[in-house]
Amino acid sequence: MTAAGQPAAPHTDERLLRTSPLRKLLGRPELGSVVGAVAVLLFFAIVADSFLQASSLGTVLYAASTIGIMAAPVALLMIGGEFDLSAGVMVTSSALISSMFSYQMTANVWVGVFVSLLVTLGFGAFNGFMLTRTKLPSFIITLGTFLMLTGLNLGFTKLISGTVSTKAIGNMEGFESARKVFASHLTLGDVELKVTILWWAALVAIATWILIRTRFGNWIFAVGGEADAARAVGVPVIRTRIGLYLGVAFAAWVSGQHLLFSYDVVQSGEGVGNELIYIIAAVIGGCLITGGYGSAIGSAVGAVIFGMTSKGIVYAEWNPDWFKFFLGAMLLLATLLNAWVRKRAEATK
Fold first, then answer.
1. 62-79 pLDDT, tens per residue?
2. DSSP helix/strand/coil, 181
3. How far apart are CA 74 and CA 235, in angstroms?
4. Which among 62, 79, 248, 340 is least buried, having the fewest CB atoms inside 10 angstroms?
């Protein structure tokens, strides 16, 4: 109660308070990954003479884009508090469906591409539906999908093609136009850029817009922070989770078509283990395992770190067996750095 004759102090909404640029910077989830990316860049610039050459830029960005295309929707899924361990083999499934449907039906390859899109989205919807209906952890649900798709990829490919790889479809109608969309390249000066870089940039931009500018983005953070509380205030938790899994499936379709139209044939055993790399890229980019925190831009920075490391080791002429060691070390260091940044940001509030 205020003293007689003294007006009560006005309440100021926290959203109207001025925030210093330093506080805003410390509050960004991708800050730690940016620091890590600069450190990796400087390190390989010193130990590998050809690392900073213009011709190396396209190679590094291509390696980053093949991971970044998947890392962006995986990051959104992790912000929503879930995982998808089937993402790696789903990419291969998408490519196999396009190739085998086109070859067996002797149709235009674009027919196979769109059939693959529908089936791959069905995989994503299955993951989301099973998660919301069974209430089982996403780890269990998507691990089951991972095992099923791994078996289906091998089983159907052997059944239809007689081998573990698909038949070549390079001479079929529509192949060249599809290759331009999913596996072409353009040259800017001395730099050759793959079209996957454009797909990657578009997906990161769309994911960032969704997180920052849309109601669905607010739902993602709310569901990842506390699903029960989000449900209590009217957030459609089920639709949000299914939508996130559909996003991962769409990116898997894009990556699968790139795989097919880059090499013409697809090995049915590919993709196993890549799901961990997508998750690592998202975590390095600032996403929390527990959900509710992260950004799509951070996943892009994590993918760039992956690209610089994988190609930097080659340019430094080191044994590529060291790559997994550096990847694990970066994961631990980035997680520790992100935790420190979050504590500093909370301390300045």
1. 999 999 999 999 999 999
2. helix
3. 21
4. 340
